[in-house]
Design goal:
The complex is a heterodimer of chains A (about 200) and B (about 210).
Chain A (H helix, E strand, L loop, with lengths): L9 H32 L5 H36 L6 H50 L2 H15 L13 H15 L22
Helix pairs in contact in A: 1-3, 1-4, 2-3, 2-5, 3-4
Chain B lengths: L3 H63 L3 H22 L17 H61 L1 H11 L7 H19 L7
Helix pairs in contact in B: 1-3, 1-4, 1-5, 2-3
Classes of the chains: A mainly alpha (about 200), B mainly alpha (about 210).
């Protein structure tokens, strides 16, 4: 004789338990799959990628500097020649100042290129973390893949535009000021450069 | 003897009641023990999973910290200085020299070479200075690199912890389900036996003094 009247919900509880386990395993797998998709999407951000970004940065900044330098050099040469001091110590020093400014600015651009690439690296890491959080929240790898693609598009670094300003103006300004002063000098017919080689330093109007 | 049958029935009933009660208690006790064991097993499994997670997180953190030792940072800084130096050399590869300056052909060579020397010196000083600035900036580079590595470690540990939090949120449900799944419906035989004992004892009492026995 059997007095048992069923399992009082034990088998139902076991089934629910199995369902819970399955759901949790599926969620975990989905999160890990989503994270994998994120890793794959961000796989393009290699050291070579950042190196290319550095080079792009340099290439965007240096032409403007070269242009300004060429103009400043010609202007300086004309002004110094006009004052008869092109081949003098003062002329040599002015060209040295010009070169120093050029090299400093280029060096600064090089430094800035590395800084910009490093800043971009940080942004990429931050974006990746955000997507991981999203992945944990949604546990939907397909949605995460789409988000990752969108995030990468947003991350594509803007091409640096040249914002150098007037780099060589400070060098040319005293020379230009000198010329302007000389033009209004009461002794303008008898200005000597002080760096005369023969008679070439004398200004003749 | 007229008391024999009543006493016999009474004794049998008492034995049946006691036996039935003992069976019921034993069954309930076994159920409670099985449910507690099932609940504890779920808890043990949960704690084992957390131990694995904790060890994984500790290993991840230690691996990250190993990249932040002083020798590692020194090497990273040297690499950062080299990277910046290379970028500076790429941006400013050489001095412009004096060739482009429109000095007359009759200018003495000593003057030409003096101008070229001053320009070359200016270039060298400028690039040296920017490389000094690069060295200063390299400290920030290493800090940034460590920050990014920390972010990466935080992300990995965060994934483990997020899954662990999900797991922990379900712990009470799991233990309750395990407890219910472990429940075995009592056969009821003990209760029946106990009931029969009670009936028997009442029957024995009713037989006492009725003269039906004998």
């Amino acid at each position: 004789m059997c007095f048992s009247n069923g399992d009082n919900g034990a088998s139902a509880a076991a089934a629910t338990q199995a369902k819970l386990d399955k759901q949790q395993a599926e969620k975990e797998a989905a999160i890990k799959a989503g994270n994998l998709r994120i890793d794959q999407a961000f796989g393009q951000f290699t050291p070579e990628y950042y190196k290319a970004y550095e080079n792009d940065y340099l290439n965007a900044q240096t032409p403007e500097l070269s242009h300004q330098y060429d103009k400043a050099k010609d202007k300086l040469a004309a002004v110094l020649a006009g004052r008869g001091v092109l081949e003098s110590t003062i002329g040599a020093n002015k060209f040295a100042d010009l070169e120093r400014t050029r090299a400093s600015t280029l060096g600064e651009i090089g430094n800035n290129a590395v800084t910009a690439a490093n800043d971009f690296r940080g942004k990429v890491e931050g974006q990746k973390s955000d997507l991981y959080n999203l992945s944990a929240a949604t546990a939907d790898p397909d949605s995460i893949a789409a988000q990752a693609t969108g995030a990468m598009t947003a991350l594509t670094p803007p091409k640096p535009t040249s914002s150098l300003g007037d780099i060589f103006g400070s060098i040319l300004q005293p020379v230009s000021g000198f010329v302007r002063g000389a033009m209004y000098s009461p002794n303008r017919n008898a200005i000597n450069s002080g760096f005369n080689y023969g008679t070439s330093g004398r200004v003749v109007n | 003897m007229c008391f024999g049958a009543e006493l016999l029935l009474l004794a049998a009933s008492a034995a049946a009641s006691a036996g039935g009660k003992m069976m019921s208690n034993a069954s309930a006790e076994a159920n409670a023990r099985a449910q507690a064991d099932a609940s504890n097993a779920v808890l043990d499994q949960f704690l084992a999973r957390r131990k694995v997670d904790q060890e994984a997180n500790t290993a991840r953190l230690n691996a990250h910290l190993d990249t932040m030792t002083q020798p590692a940072n020194t090497a990273a800084q040297e690499a950062a200085v080299a990277e910046r130096g290379a970028a500076i050399d790429t941006a400013a590869p050489a001095s412009t020299g004096a060739e482009d300056i429109p000095i007359s052909g009759s200018t003495p060579s000593i003057v030409k070479s003096e101008i070229a020397k001053r320009i070359g010196d200016a270039f060298n000083v400028a690039t040296e200075n920017t490389k000094k600035a690069a060295k200063a900036a390299s400290y920030g580079d290493v800090f940034g690199m460590n920050q990014r590595a920390t972010e990466s470690a935080r992300r990995d540990i965060g994934v483990t912890n997020s899954l662990a939090r999900d797991d922990a949120a379900l712990l009470s449900n799991r233990t309750e389900l395990a407890r219910r799944a472990a429940y075995k419906t009592p056969s009821g035989f003990g209760d029946v036996l106990s009931g029969l004992g009670a009936l028997g004892s009442m029957a024995a009492g009713s037989m006492f003094g009725s003269g039906k026995t004998g």
